[in-house]
Fold:
Amino acid sequence: MDILLSLKALILGIIEGLTEFLPISSTGHLIVVGDLLDFRSNGKVFEIAIQLGAVLAVIFEYRQRFKHVLTHVGKDAEVNRFVVNLGVAFIPAAVVGLLFSKQIKLYLFNPISVATALVVGGFIILWVENRQKSIPPRVNRVDDMRMRDALVVGLAQICALIPGTSRSGSTIMGGMIWGLERKVATEFSFFLAVPVMIAATFYDVLKNYELFTLQDIGLIVIGFVSAFIAGLLAVKALLKFVASKNYVPFAYYRIIFGGLILISWQMGWISWTEM
Structure:
């Protein structure tokens, strides 16, 4: 196996795992870093593998919660409401994504669009966090969420179809604006990632199953394992972080990172792929 290609796969797997659950856009980082590394593999298959690795990290971290849901669905009113809420939140972005995914990938899957979304999203996070200082949360437990709360989070998730916006960032900030306590919005974003990413994975597998070959199995394993481990670390760290702090540092990171990409492009220092 090519050592350099394996190292690139390791880097991209770690980036997927670390950024999938942080409000800084995993897709955006993969587009930018993949372009910078000139990563050449069976791209779609590799992307599917590392996304699955990241989502399994959430399932593992919350394995007791998911086990409880699976064994009590249909029997427990609170569990039933939780499952319905996930379904309601899942639908909006799924529908819009199916309708416009080709156009989005054609026009927005490039480093410059990603950088612009990173910067804009950073300023939105700063605004939301500043707003929350004077507005107490209305929902303080995930199990206290109602269907309308889940629907608002689901509608906010539509914004994440724009690469660089961040799925977790959209759902967390949307939830906080609507009245979810910061940790509640974060946990619900984690839970929502499971059906969203599993559905996206199966959809991509059905569309690209003919691309799966044994040739890239080594890279797939490297990316999958590194994404799982990095994702697990990211989830644990973020839950601990938001227990006492806010998302302002991530906002500044987005603005600086996106700004550097735009400056390097404008000055001609790096020839980013525009389309």
